[in-house]
Write a structure and sequence with these properties.
The chain has 326 residues and is an alpha/beta fold. It folds into 2 domains: 182 residues, Rossmann fold (3-Layer(aba) Sandwich), CATH 3.40.50.970; 128 residues, Rossmann fold (3-Layer(aba) Sandwich), CATH 3.40.50. The chain has 12 helices and 14 strands. Helix 1 runs parallel beside helix 7 and helix 3 packs parallel to helix 4. The radius of gyration is 19 Å and the shape is globular.
């Protein structure tokens, strides 16, 4: 059994390496992904081992990166395009939502576009404007795109493998402030389905649902709550589109309370869809309304105050207390 302890960034690197070795049609492309190995060194060493035709340094032109990736996919390749930072994706938004997301339906299923777009996202690294966004809800709202976000090294490795193998376009959001956190990766394992949520911690009093960078925050909140005699279940959503509502529903009906946590602003965030859907499905099983914890409806702030913006332990535990008070 091949078990390694890897940081999330290294797990993604290993996953890309495995995909490049397994399929000559897989190409990696993006700004500084080659010689530099990416600004976070996620693609370090890949160009050296696979050459400039497989690991391609592109111009600083996100629309061109995604447009080229679509063209490559139409010619039978499986491009993995990196957007260097979350806030840089918007010049490519038109290509993604009007071309990439629509090609399969437009061709009545005859054309497949197996493009993966890797996007480091979220805050917590002290970055400047346009480097700490959480735009996942914008893409989840667009039919034709799959949107996923791993929270740990094992999921980072396996979910990227599954995304590359998918015939549908996948937006792969990487929680950049978790890049250096280590976890076990079993490269011989049979992974869960790409869009299946997982129960990261069992509990009985309330359910916390999160994905990406907030899963660790929720696990820390559950550990802190346990010291006060409260038992919190933590569900790692893993996929934002589609959403595994069945797993969330089962947990919410088990505990009777649900709190959804994400870094993105609460207003029109993924938590709103989850809250509405679970309320519809489980109204008579709930002991309290579904609550949401997230960022504020404001532009991402300067680094010195980002800890006040980001949902942390106290905001999550406050929501738990409010839920339990009903």
């Amino acid at each position: 059994m091949a078990v390694k302890k890897l940081p999330v960034a290294k797990a993604i690197n290993e996953s890309l390496r495995t995909a490049l070795e397994a399929d000559p049609k897989v190409v990696v492309m993006g700004e500084d992904v080659g010689k530099l190995g990416g600004v976070f060194r996620v693609t370090d060493g890949l160009q050296k081992d696979f050459g400039e035709d497989r690991v391609i340094d592109t111009p600083l032109a996100e629309s061109g990166i995604i447009g080229t990736a679509i063209g490559l996919a139409l010619r039978g390749y499986r491009p993995v395009a990196e957007i260097q930072f979350d806030g840089f994706v918007f010049p490519a938004y038109d290509q993604i939502v009007t071309q990439l997301a629509k090609m399969y339906a437009r061709s009545l299923g005859k054309i497949k576009v197996p493009v993966v777009i890797r996007i480091p996202y979220g805050g917590g690294i002290g970055a400047v404007e346009h480097h700490s966004e959480s735009p996942e809800a914008l893409f989840a709202h667009v039919a034709g795109l799959k949107v996923v976000s791993p929270s740990n090294s094992s999921d980072a490795y396996w979910m990227l493998q599954q995304a590359i193998q998918s015939d549908d376009p996948v937006i792969f959001f990487e929680p950049k402030r978790r890049y250096w956190e280590k976890g076990e990766v079993n490269t011989d394992a049979i992974p869960d389905p790409l869009h299946k949520a997982s129960v990261a911690r069992e509990g009985t009093d309330a359910t916390l649902v999160a994905y990406g960078p907030m899963v660790r925050t929720c696990l820390e909140a559950a550990a802190a709550a346990a010291e006060e005699g409260k038992s919190l279940e933590v569900v790692d959503l893993r996929s934002v589109s589609p959403i595994d509502f069945d797993t969330v529903q089962a947990s919410a009906e088990k505990t009777g309370r649900l709190i959804v946590v994400h870094e993105a602003p609460v207003f029109f965030g993924a938590g709103a869809e989850i809250a509405a859907r679970i309320t519809e499905r489980s109204f008579y099983h709930l002991e309290a309304p579904v609550l949401r914890v997230g960022g504020f409806h404001s532009p991402y702030p300067p680094a010195r105050v980002e800890e006040d913006y980001l949902p942390g332990l106290d905001r999550v535990l406050d929501a738990v207390d409010r839920s339990l008070a009903y």
